[in-house]
Amino acid sequence: ASNDPKTLFSRWSRSTMAVPCCMSFRREAIKQVGGVDLDYMYLEDWPLVLRLLRNGYAPYYLQMIVAMHSTGGISNANRTYGGEVKKAYHKDKELFFRKEVDPYIDLLTEEDKKYLNLYKHEIAERLRFFDVEWFEASFLQKIHLLIQKPLRIKWLFERKFMSKRRGGRKVRLALAIIMFALGAYLVRRYGVPEMEKFMGAFGMMACIGSIVLACFCVGTFVIERYFKREQNKRDHLVH
Q1: 96: which residues sit within 8 A by CB, 6+ positions away?
Q2: How confident is the model at residue 195 (pLDDT cuts 50, 70, 90)?
Q3: What is the pTM of this model?
Q4: pLDDT per residue over 93-103, tens digit each?
């Protein structure tokens, strides 16, 4: 990995590696960049690191474990935090981009500019929608939010769909195979004449139902693969 301050500033403007509990700083470096910015309530580490990088300071990595940092804080979308805390965190992030990134956009590579724009819309805006806007909105306000930006409908559908996906498709596909086999057997065994009409019709319905169910399974598989690709794209933006 590069240890050049300019390269790291470009990359970390959209995805930070700041873990303060595992970092130490030289006092003169902190003084030179003005210390910790008290305008932030929860996001003080990321701005500090970017200001150090802009002033030519690069991190030095120790090839050993010196501290353990537990995951699940507010920046990791921990659900134990209340709405006010999340709202303050997202306000910090908006302030961060206005103060530490947008004024220095020319320092970013073209690739990082593109990924920064994707990060703002696919990560920051999406998380703010779920954590703050949707969380606090009344029924009518939710309708207004969806009309205001239809892309949010996709976000909601993706979250709901992916939360319910595990195991369901395999069960439906197995049921479709059983229904088709049963239907084919009944049609072949009883045909359609006279007394056997009911069983033949039932077999035909089972065949048709199994085909519909199989198509549904294929459709959900395609949708799931698409949403997984979207998730991988978002993961790439933050790593």
Answers
A1: 40, 43, 46, 47
A2: very low
A3: 0.69
A4: 999 999 999 99
* pLDDT, tens only, 45-94: 889 999 999 999 988 877 777 667 666 555 555 455 567 888 888 899 99
The CA distance from 128 to 139, in Å, is 18
Q: What is the dihedral of CA 7, 9, 13, 15, to 10 degrees?
A: 60
Count CA atoms closer than 13 A to 61's CA, side-chain side: 8
Query: Which alpha helices (DSSP H) does 55-195 contain, by range?
Result: 83-96, 110-119, 125-128, 134-136, 139-148, 151-163, 168-190
User: What whole-number distance in Å separates Cα of residue 229 and Cα of residue 127?
Assistant: 18
Residues in the chain: 239
DSSP 11: H
Q: Are 217 and 176 within 8 A, CB to CB?
A: yes
Closest CA to 175 of 117, 214, 127: 214
